[in-house]
Amino acid sequence: MIETFTHNNYTVAKLQIKEANLDVAEQFKSEILQLIDKGQNQIIVSFENVAYVDSSFLGALVSVLKYAMSKNGDIAVAQLNKDINNLFNLIRMNKVFKIYNTLPDVFA
Length: 108
Description:
Layout: E1 2-7, E2 10-15, E3 19-20, H1 22-37, E4 42-46, E5 52-53, H2 55-70, E6 74-78, H3 82-90, E7 98-100, H4 103-107
Parallel strand pairs: 2-4, 3-5, 4-6, 6-7
Antiparallel strand pairs: 1-2
């Protein structure tokens, strides 16, 4: 579900799905928690391939953020499409997550 690579002490978790919804939320959560437990606690979740996000997936995203923070880590998001970015702003997730337009923005 996610493809990962490391760059400048960040782990980029690129979602390999079109729809981030209830069907994939638990698997996403499990894969991110495994990364954190391995010591990779600075994670950027790339939404480059994602066209749709539902509330259950957002709940999983918040859950992994809380877990990362408990391990002195952080989760940020990148490459949101216009609709998902608008959703993050509408429900104030932009106050919870650092949002980057592109991956180079993260590493700058």
